[in-house]
Amino acid sequence: MAMIGIDRTCRPRQRRVGWAAGLASMTACLFLWACSGGGGGAASNFKANPSASFLDPVAEPSSPFVASDWSTSQEYMNSTGLAQLKAAEGYARRSGGQPGGQGARIAIIDSGIDLDHPDLGNLHGTSWSAGGEGLVGDDHATFVAGIAAASRTQSGDSNDMHGIAYNATLVNFQASRPSETAANGYVSFGTNDLVDAIRAASGLSTGSSAVESDILNLSLGAASGSDDTFAKLRTAMIAAAGEDKIMIIAAGNNGGSEPIYPAAYADDAGVAGLAIVVGNLTASNLAATSSNLCGATQDYCLFAPGSSIRSTLDGGSYGIGSGTSFAAPYVAGAAAVVKAAFPSVSSEDVVNRLLLTAADLGAAGVDSTFGRGRLDLEAAMAPVGPTGFPIGPSVDGPSLAVSESTFLLGRGLVLSDAVRGFFAQAMAVDSMGFPFPVDLGEAVSRTAEDQGLASFVSSHRGSLAAVGLATAELAAFVPETDRFGYDDLSPSVSLRDPGIDDAALPMSLSADLTGGATVFASLHGGSGGRLGLQSSLAGRQAVLAQTRRLLSPYGGLLDTPSGAGFSFHPAEGTAMALSAYGSFTDGAGGESALQRVEVRQSMVAGIDLSFELGLIQEDSAFLGGETSGAFGTASASSQFLTASLMGPITDDVDWFATYSRGRSSIADGGSGLIDAWSDTRSEAFGAGLLIDALAVDDDRLTLMIGQPLRQERAKASVSLPVARERDGRVVTRTQTIDFSPEAREIAAEIGYQLPLDEEGGHDIRAAAFFRLNPGHDRKADPETGLGLAYRLRF
């Protein structure tokens, strides 16, 4: 008859002893042994490991330690081993739900847990016992259970501690029969009883009330035994592996170079990948002298703290123990924490993650002493390698890097709360295929536009000082360059430090030809050759900061374009211009182009009518925005028409108005999460007054109100990865997203220019701004601002 036993010298003889009363001679070693003949007597030559240490009463910690912000509780500080494994840092990596293994079940296949221990309140209400005999609490099993998953009560009691998987469920599998306890001090486990316990914990026991568990902790073993005994254990372990159960097995405490049985089966073909052998690591990250080493199981072997560990004892007390029996439940608990955090991965994935994320010890890489190294819960809970959004049917397929995924919204597009809520469900996977929630909405930002005070400062060249009172923006010196043909300079010195490249300053050149024709060229955003309303207002030196947003919205889609064209006068009072521009950006690296035809016609009563018809082709950009990574690479083709009017009311008052309408087709490139874009419609408009000689002869007041570019029916179909199946298949959720705004921005401004000398060498300019629903965002607060600039020409 084959049996498994715990040497009485390896466990406390005293029962229900408080920590203050002390414990006598308890070592932490479990051994599997076999005997033959009737009655099942113990082998007479069996010896306890002489190097085993002892369990002693526990006093309050004299010097509490804190590993992280998580570990400030007294319970954590009482729980020796957690800091060494970076448990608190691992808990903090949990992005959703409760950390600590909630939802996972750990089967303690041992000698019987104290069901009434106050720190083991997460014990399942159903226990399993060998042969159906009565349940008896035991120090060894209770100690193992506490290390794995003693509950976190946060009572502040100086005696309390908690297990590494403090939210997991413990399941008591009492594999020993009290009626078969050997007379020489061994607690005996019949081989068949142990096999039954493994099968019952794996859900393979028919007609049993046993609670199926996810992780099986086996803090027991023997260096030798009969072939029949070991064959039965191997068969039971293979069956458990077939049910996707994780087995954590103590390496043994006789100081050997190879683990004892059943740990020696961890590299067996039928078990490999679902079992981990655990050795005893000291607080100095050395292998305990009593601990068996990894040997042939090195690929499936870890070390965890097992020396002078504090945990729960039978009778509601606490003690200190050492041995591989107490290192194993740290790994079992860590497996529960990882499995609970990633319920969609297989048990083999969990085992592989614990092995691959271990902190290397000893010789570099996997070795026969430490195997994979020391268990590291923080590394196991953190992404391994870069994270990406899977774009195929499996997590093992291609993915798009999270770090390279950006969505710069084009002009007139918004991200509503509903869309943000959808993007917040995104799942990325690391290099091991483990899922991590990512709020993809955080990758979405707005296109920067010249607006408000920033636009006011940048629109004033030749200023010694331009101050935005609302944003404390300062342009200390903006060089005047009109005399050299430059145009539209931004501040060269500013609190915002725009970083102007002197080699890419805007420039406009022109030459008159015979017959009234003119050829012109513009570099880096220069505005030479324009015929429309914007050019007319610039000639009048109107104090307008938001001219491009309201009066020339489509031309502003290109970033600092360069190009050329020519203008001519086909008839009296008529002017036409044809031009082509290109823009080379550093962002997506694409090339965008603009072709346009402009016509200006002088009409009755001094009214000028102008039209601008254009085509913009954006490569790797759309409506002034960009996408990359998970969002693919979008390009757009836009046609637009702008009609403008300007005319006098009195000698000193002029009015102007403009309306722009466009249609854009967006191609997504087919490489990201966005499947298809709809064609969009867009519009912008503005109107205002120019009032001269308001207070003095040469002053000028400018009023303007309008709506910047706003898109309509801007929809896209987005297939978002939101979860993964156990077999690695990606679960996606497809939704049609509407990026068109629900609100309408109305922008208004008033500007005033006061010359300080007759030659116009220097003047003062002031402006006030107001934006309702800025960015067409109905939830955005109104924006207001004041600007003041002093300009000196020299």
Q: Can you describe what's shown?
A:
By secondary structure, this protein is an alpha+beta fold. 14% of the residues lie in helices and 32% in strands. It is built from twelve helices and 38 strands. Strands 21-20-19-38-37-36-33-32-30-29-27-26-25-24-23-22 form a 16-stranded antiparallel sheet. The chain has a seven-stranded parallel sheet with strand order 4-5-3-7-8-9-10, with helices on both faces. β25 and β26 form a beta hairpin. α4 runs parallel beside α5 and α6 packs across α7. The N terminus is likely disordered.
Layout of helices and strands, plus pairs?
Layout: E1 2-6, E2 31-34, H1 74-78, H2 87-92, E3 105-110, E4 128-129, H3 139-149, E5 169-174, E6 187-190, H4 191-201, E7 215-218, H5 227-242, E8 246-250, E9 275-281, E10 301-305, E11 309-313, E12 317-321, H6 324-341, H7 347-356, H8 377-381, E13 388-390, E14 399-401, E15 406-409, H9 417-423, E16 427-429, E17 435-437, E18 444-446, H10 452-458, E19 463-468, E20 473-477, E21 493-494, E22 507-512, E23 518-523, H11 533-539, H12 547-551, E24 562-571, E25 574-584, E26 591-602, E27 608-618, E28 626-628, E29 635-648, E30 653-667, E31 674-677, E32 680-692, E33 700-712, E34 715-724, E35 730-738, E36 746-755, E37 762-772, E38 783-792
Parallel strand pairs: 3-5, 3-7, 4-5, 7-8, 8-9, 9-10, 15-18
Antiparallel strand pairs: 1-2, 1-6, 11-12, 13-14, 15-28, 16-17, 19-20, 19-38, 20-21, 22-23, 23-24, 24-25, 25-26, 26-27, 27-29, 29-30, 30-32, 31-34, 32-33, 33-36, 34-35, 36-37, 37-38
